[in-house]
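Thread: sanity check for a docking pose with manganese (II) ion

Original post by kr_44:
Hi all, I'm comparing my docking run against an independent structure prediction. Below are the sequence and the ligand SMILES. Could someone generate the full complex and paste the structure tokens? I mainly care about where the ligand ends up relative to the chain.
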Amino acid sequence: MKILDELRDCETIAISGHVRPDGDCVGSCMAMALYLRDNLPDARVDVFLEDFSEELEKNIAGTDTVNHDYVTDVEHYDAFLCLDCENTRLGDAMGFYAAAKKTINIDHHKTNPGCGMVNFVVPTASSTCELVYQVMDDEKLTKDIAKNLYIGMVTDTGVFMFSNTSRQTMAIAGRLMEFGFDYPTIVREVFHEKSYVQQQILGRALLESILFLDGKCIFSRIDRKTMQFYQATSSDLDGISSQLSNTKGCLCAIFMYEVKPLTYKVSLRSTTDDVDVARIAEKFGGGGHIRAAGCTVNAPYHDIINNMSELIEQQLTDHGIL
Ligand SMILES: [Mn+2]
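Reply from moderator J.T.:
Ran it for you. Here is the predicted complex with manganese (II) ion included:
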């Protein structure tokens, strides 16, 4: 698919991604918006997204044009591009999606069956940005578009370290680097840097973690009282589950935090394809990838952990690990 062929006659185009947007979501939406504004100068291109981190705001080009309050005078967009998710995760942009004349879905989540009239959903791709690159014409890229795509790829591959990183991922990233943006600074600011509060709450989560299933799994949780004590928001907890999964001997990490009484947002990480955490998250109404998935569950945390533990144990037994 080439995106310009799909949007030739469109005068109004909306772009959005999932709630709680991450680097791949914002990067793919803004790379796409800049590309369409360059190449379809007569079209109006609107991007709708929830608020995101100041690091993304600062490093991703064009974020000053994002519509965060979801107010528009366009009733029916000629086209709606749903990036890095299926339509059910669009949040307040759902209505624009439903009313659009044409819908296009570009995504790499394995649980997404493809929700658009036109779909480019490739679960083996590292990131939506890797797919967005493929629907663009290489010779029409600019430095800002390249930088935005690179930020998304860095986010979803853990700086090209996760198993979703392929030869193609590296080839595309290498091509993007030729545009000469400051990638060491981007990687540090977008990926490695943490605020003092984030470091402290990560420390708490590590201190209070427990091993189970013969040390093959690790679990930790942060309750609302602790969140309030550190004045932490949900985005301050990003990365805790992957840090837990770095524990030697652990194949699977579960991290949860309380969003309201007895409602937990659960983040799952696996270090092996033998534990498919997307399958576990799906059982609780969530989804994701084999090695990274999440869900929101309404139950006491020990019930959640007991139920998840059984499912993980089953997978480990099936693979002869336990
Ligand atoms: Mn993604």
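The radius of gyration is 20 Å. Hope that helps with the comparison, let us know if your pose agrees.
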